[in-house]
């Protein structure tokens, strides 16, 4: 099997003085895939990306790209290109020369580099602006020049550090589609660092969720969103409520849990649990009904409405319950406006146990 563009991170760590920015990371990113790294500010995403790019050296561990150990290899030799968040275009060079710059460094003759730069500008639909200077471009156009400049060296792996963060919402969504199309066309590996959950879910074949320098979960977007590993992932990815309780009864794969206040829930579990064990599970916000009178014995939680936000396709209703976090329900917009709620209303939320995910992690 070809390993082109495959990235293997073997027991990678990175410390700055006494501070460990990246803990022990073991991960394989398949060649030709689109991988998004996400996590809160300071969790080590950029440091990991910079180690893959060769801008930082790991304190320990190995990095393999395309089957080659590149851990100590120089930036330009490892088949990667890094696109910076601020695009880092040369202000005094026109677009064609910006894009051709790294070919010049590599000693490519002028006619060949100009031809390749024009091809790359055409790929990002900017060939007609080749003679413009960076200050004459919009944010989206600057972003595309930066992409063309990163791709001109024909990398196996393109590394993107928050590539869309400087763009307004409309352009972000447009460029998101273009990034995915470009990756499909080129068939090379993209690793994209983002702060935005919908961006990661929409783009990635694999989402890597980090926290405090380690990988908490690395999986297909649907798994990360619908089957989160831990309460942290469930909260961070959004879309889920976390409920905690203790096991009151079990028959192996199915348990009954009891929460503070006596509410009971039945749910499938992913490992054996004993009576009295603490348990956390996630309930999808969009799979919960709000009713005035409980229609079932289990899987209901009483609450008081503390917040209502209209979101267009749904209405986000926040409840104060016996659980620590605000318990959030995404109500269908039409159903909501048939029976609107107001802050202070006492309601019952209920769901079916097949919309629940047993959380294995403890943090
Ligand atoms: P953000 O989303 O805010 O960009 P991040 O997840 O990309 O954050 P990193 O930039 O990787 O986080 O930083 C991880 C941690 O390492 C942070 O606490 C940061 O302050 C620290 N750090 C990064 N580079 C250095 C450095 N050169 N010297 C010392 N500490 C550093």
Automatic annotation (TrEMBL):
Gene Ontology cellular component list: ATP-binding cassette (ABC) transporter complex
UniProt xrefs under InterPro entries: AAA+_ATPase (IPR003593), ABC_SmlMolc_Importer (IPR050093), ABC_transporter-like_ATP-bd (IPR003439), ABC_transporter-like_CS (IPR017871), Mo/tungstate-bd_C_term_dom (IPR008995), P-loop_NTPase (IPR027417), Transp-assoc_OB_typ2 (IPR013611)
Keyword Transport: yes
Any Pfam family the entry gives: TOBE_2
Organism lineage: Bacteria, Pseudomonadati, Pseudomonadota, Alphaproteobacteria, Rhodobacterales
Name of the protein in its database record: ABC transporter ATP-binding protein
Keyword annotations of the record: ATP-binding, Nucleotide-binding, Transport
Domain ABC transporter, residue spans: 7-237
Domain of life: Bacteria
Sample GO molecular function, one term: ATP hydrolysis activity
BP GO annotations: quaternary ammonium group transport
Keyword ATP-binding listed: yes
């Amino acid at each position: 099997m070809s390993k082109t563009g495959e990235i293997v991170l073997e027991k990678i760590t990175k410390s700055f003085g006494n501070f460990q920015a990246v803990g022990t990371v073991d991960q394989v990113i398949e060649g030709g895939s689109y991988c998004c790294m996400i996590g809160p500010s300071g969790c080590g995403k950029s440091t990991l990306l910079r180690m893959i790019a060769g801008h930082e050296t790991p304190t320990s561990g190995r990095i393999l790209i395309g089957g080659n150990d590149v851990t100590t290899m120089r930036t330009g030799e490892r088949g990667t290109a890094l696109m910076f968040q601020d695009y880092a275009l040369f202000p005094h060079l026109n677009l064609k020369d910006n894009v051709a710059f790294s070919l010049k460094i590599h000693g490519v003759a002028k006619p060949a580099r100009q031809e390749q730069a024009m091809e790359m500008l055409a790929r990002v639909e900017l060939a007609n602006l080749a003679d413009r200077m960076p200050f004459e471009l919009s944010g989206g156009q600057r972003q595309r020049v930066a992409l063309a400049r990163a791709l001109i060296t024909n990398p196996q792996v393109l590394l993107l550090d928050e590539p869309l963060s400087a763009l307004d919402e409309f352009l972000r969504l447009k460029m998101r589609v273009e990034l995915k199309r470009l990756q499909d066309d080129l068939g090379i590996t993209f690793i994209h660092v983002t702060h935005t959950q919908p961006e990661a879910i929409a783009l990635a074949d694999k989402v890597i969720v980090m926290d405090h320098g380690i990988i908490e979960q690395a999986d297909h977007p649907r798994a990360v969103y619908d089957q989160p590993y831990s309460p942290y992932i469930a909260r961070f990815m959004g879309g889920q409520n976390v409920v905690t309780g203790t096991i009151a009864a079990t028959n192996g794969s199915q348990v009954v849990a009891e929460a503070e206040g006596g509410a009971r829930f039945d749910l499938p579990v992913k490992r054996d649990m004993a009576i009295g064990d603490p348990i956390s599970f996630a309930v999808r916000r969009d799979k919960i009904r709000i009713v005035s009178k409980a229609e079932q014995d289990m899987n209901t939680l009483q609450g008081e409405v503390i917040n209502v936000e209209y979101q267009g396709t749904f209405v986000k209703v926040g409840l104060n319950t016996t659980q620590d976090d605000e318990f959030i329900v995404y109500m269908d917009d039409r159903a909501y406006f048939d029976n609107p709620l107001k802050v202070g209303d006492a309601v019952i939320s209920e769901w079916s146990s097949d919309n629940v995910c047993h959380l294995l992690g403890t943090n």
